[in-house]
Amino acid sequence: MTTAKLIDGNALAKNIRAEVAQRTAALKQKGITPGLAVILVGEDPASQVYVKHKVNDSREAGLNSVLERYPATFDEGQLLARIRALNADPSIHGILVQLPLPKHMDANKVIETISPAKDVDGFHVASAGALLIGQPGFWPCTPYGCMKMLESIDYELRGKNAVVIGRSNIVGKPMALMLLQKNATVTICHSATRDLKAHTLQADLVVAAVGKRNVLTADMVKPGAVVIDVGMNRNDQGKLCGDVDFAGVSEVAGWITPVPGGVGPMTRAMLLVNTLQAAERTAR
Ligand code: NAP
After folding, report:
1. Which of 19, 41, 254, 279 is the right S-S partner for 93, CB 3.0 to 4.6 Å?
2. Model pTM above 0.85
3. Is the CB of 267 under 6 A from ligand 1?
């Protein structure tokens, strides 16, 4: 018996992309075409797929998206110089460096070279700091997409117990801060957490961002809870799956996001939103 309602990331992302396309058209009337530079260094197969999607999505929405590809042997100094040139280029409003970078490069140094005004991935320390203290800035696309999913079901976070499983800088930590900003009582769990189930059973909302299958099973979920599955894993058949035992948890949860078709498309959509916002700011 399935009880949980589905939060359809594909449908929601489609609406967001349509809205971005509309706002982009309006901005073009003012003579500004939002420009996104996507930088890929090396041949990582997953990264190649991701950047292709990002570039295609943005072009479909009417943005000017430029893909710059460099070999894995590319010099860090040259990459930094290229980023500085893009920082100074008025036709580019957002700069994204696809991670992971080759081992000889210092990813922090590379990200910190991006102008905070163009940091549409939201990974710069200035963006992280702005989120921490509640100032306007770019929010990392994945947790931002999760917030939009909660908004889409009119979920009132005030006073709710939220458990975030995972504490990475790009998902878990910013997710927790966004939920805190909306007045949830937030617990962050990680690999050293003792008795994860004791925490999740208290949760009105669970966000799983771990990267391991079946981190969250039906016995760990409070009836009616909202469950957001950020994880991207492969099952025994090689099919994409999340961190959540979807079939089992669907029988207990009130709302659940699927994998695929959940957080993934939302992450992609929020990159367009951030880029558009970066361009709109220059129009003011
Ligand atoms: P990450 O940097 O590897 O972080 C994983 C987190 O999970 C860490 O904080 C780790 O704890 C914690 N963890 C590991 N084992 C655990 C356990 N047994 N119980 C509780 N916590 C545990 O990964 P990430 O970049 O945040 O990504 C997480 C997942 O989301 C991955 O599957 C990734 O592919 C996926 N993802 C999806 C999207 C999307 O668009 N759908 C976007 C980004 C990421 P420690 O800190 O103690 O090591």
Report:
1. 279
2. yes
3. yes
Residues 6+ apart with CB under 8 A from 277: 138
**Paired tokens of 194:** 């003792």
Mutational test site, ligand 1, from 123, 188, 207, 210, max ligand atoms within 8 Å of CB: 210
Pocket flag, ligand 1, residue 166 (CB < 6 Å): yes
Tokens (6 digits) for 123: 């990974």
Q: Is 244 in the pocket of ligand 1 (CB under 6 A)?
A: no
Query: Can you list the domains of the chain with their CATH numbers?
Result: 31-117 (3.40.50.10860), 140-264 (3.40.50.720)
Tens-digit pLDDT profile for residues 122-145: 999 999 999 999 999 999 999 999
| Number of CB atoms found within 10 A of residue 165's CB | 29
Distance between CA 86 and CA 247 in Å, rounded? 46
